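Replying to the earlier thread about multi-chain prediction with a worked example.

Input:
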Amino acid sequence: MPDVLIIGAGPAGLAAARAARRVGAAVTLLDASDELGGQYWRHLPASRPAERENLLHHGWSTFTALRAELEADTGCTIVRGANVWAIETREGRPGAVFVVVGEPDGANREQRVFEPDALVIATGAYDRTLPFPGWELPGVFTAGAAQALAKGERVAIGSRVLVAGAGPFLLPVAASLAATGSTVVGVYEANRVKALMAGWLPKPWQVLRAAKKGGELGGYVLNHLQHRIPYRLGTAVVRAEGTDRVESVTLASVDALWAPIPGTERTVAVDAVCVGHGFTPRLELAIAAGCALDGDDFVGVDEQQQTSIPSVYAAGEITGIGGVDAALAEGEIAGHVAAGGSVLDAALRPAVAHRRTYRSFGRRIEDAHGVRAGWRGWLTDDTVVCRCEEVTYGALRGAATATGGESLRSIKLASRAGLGICQGRVCGRTVEDVLDSLSPGHSDGPRSAAEDRVRTDRRPIALPLRLGELADEPTLS
Amino acid sequence: MNVIVIGGGIIGAATARSLARRGLSVVVLERGRNVGGTSSGGEGNLLLSDKGPGDELRLTQYSSTLWPIVDAELRDELGPGFPSVEFERKGGVVVSTTAAGAQPLLDFAATQRAAGVVAHPLDVAAALELEPHLNPAITAGVHYPEDAQVQPVIMTEALIASAKRSGAWFFENEPALSGIRNPAGDLVGVRTPTRALYADAVVIAAGPWSGSAAEALGVPLPVKPRRGMVLVTSRMPHRIFHKVYDGDYVSAVGSSDAALQTSSVIETTAAGTVLIGSSRQQIGFDSRLTVAVLRELAQKALRLFPFLSEMSVMRSYGGFRPFMPDHLPVIGADPRLSGLWHATGHEGAGIGLSVATGALLADLMTGATPAIDAAAFSPARPSLAPYLGAVAA
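Result:
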């Protein structure tokens, strides 16, 4: 029986673990958190259980069933607090996976190395927030952070909260905020009716086929009606104001490309604002494992969820933003095949069909809600782009212009954007977008297929590690 | 006179700048992106401390006199809007960590002093005064105030910008595929995927890829890649004030051993991160991450600065040094093929030697008298003869 190592215990990783176990493989499931479920099913720790967790989560019973089956299964080893910091590649097979186990700032973290027969990477996505003037003020939250506080801590981020950005994720965030006691003054989606229609409507039967997904969105809409939260299209937060923390935000109508329309600005008093513009895949471990990316900067996979590296599989948001149902289907296929099963096995038929349905759903979300280039219109020269190194948009453009705007590496080193402790997780795509705006079609730009492309997603050391830990010899698991 | 320079790294940029400032017409061909190879894969060392008496030290001393001049010229020319090249003569402190290592280190420094290098011997107390966080278990030290550092990527960009102002052209994504010969067999240009370019001279400045560039033009050149890795910590208050390294480094630099060697070279950058180098490994152009290499770097760094144990490593990067079998760069006209010149093979010292290399090559090409004797770096030197072989037609 093969050893299958799974990185990430969100929907895709959990589904992969169960499928691999059902085929009979020995499974090790790693997750950085102390709780299973990933960002999607983020919840209160077991020490303070909540009675109504199911009301905050779509598919909560799916999660509890997965968790119960895996926790009871002696053939599945779950390692919590496991941070994968490097992967060493091996020719034609999965590499060595280097892990530190324990609290990120804890002493005596345990070091382990895994050399599995098959590897499933299910690292999910980071939530993306485009910068705007004032976004570094206390009280401004990314949609993901607000959701994590609401789901994982039951902490309300403010009493009068405005939600803005793009994508269907804004709706569950607003619902969570309302459920934790905030007054949500409105949800503002940057895309206009036309874009939403173009994305959602050319093949409406596909939406119908994603019936469960329709149910999920239906629940959010119902929740909104109950809480009387206004939902407005074609509107963006272009500025946050305040001295010690956010006191108000300025909204503006934006055109189809998200460029603010002059004369449409209005100010809304809030004590917190929550902004999100979709997701970017967490690619660093897949890149470290040697996996090739596709033309949209996701991990490329075949029908079996296998990457360009034999016996290395990828599932969930790193292969394309598709939502929880696509992640569950892909995880199941990846785990099944990684354990030695065939994609043609009868047991996989429902998952294969689901994947087809939910993948197209994901594409349509991107068409409807994807980031449009006009957003740079709300940046000013003193808008902070890289928060770790406090690099402004003006400094970034200045560095790009001085060095001829020709190389992402030079722009980063000249401005220090993306070189701070988060290693470009927050600003990487923004820096690439700015490069692309200065030098369209650049070989280091977004979606470039250049062989020697410099990528902000490439992080050979995937997580910061203390030098003392690096110096210690690990034990082979 | 028209010159083609192959390679958009720091040697190509410095060479193009020197030639263009003397009025030559210069085109630089870069197969990928400028500053995309070795020049962005290292630390930016301008070291005298690691070189024993000899030709490379003379070239380094010459370069050391040019650096402040070039730094001032670039600031003057490019203005305050251009990012800083972070040139800083911060000095080096070399220490020995074993009882047996102390005397050889001090003896080596004495030979350097005789060759004109400023090298002050330090006892343990004096070393700790310069670097209070050093491991007090060190056995001896030497202070080299002339050692300096520069941000190598920005420095290369600055040299490119300056060369462009003097009229040089830089073509990226344009590899030199083959040479163009006249009926006499002289090299008179190169072909790229999109054009044929003619020139009176072609200079190979392609770092570790110089061997394949020379082969494309019809001659062998024994430049091989030697991989190096560097660790970068997160930012911290400055606690390391010089370039500090273990005396082992000198023997690793001078060695031809292909197996992995590591020795600590530790320094703080202008941004407050600490760079921990460096490894030397001859494994071809294999750029895959090797944790064992990173681990050895970390272990040796902790021997010098135990406080680093609690600091975070944020990233690692690496590159390929252009290694020469006789440990000297090649600067000058190729005796085998008229029209072909070289400016390559600097191993790990190319950033520091770049400005001297450009000046020397420009002197040789224009018939000016070089500031130092260039014969030792000539492709015609005896120590290189066994490796050069015949010229392909």
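Residues 2-76+152-223+326-388 of chain B form a domain with the FAD/NAD(P)-binding domain fold (CATH 3.50.50.60).

Feel free to reuse this layout for your own posts.
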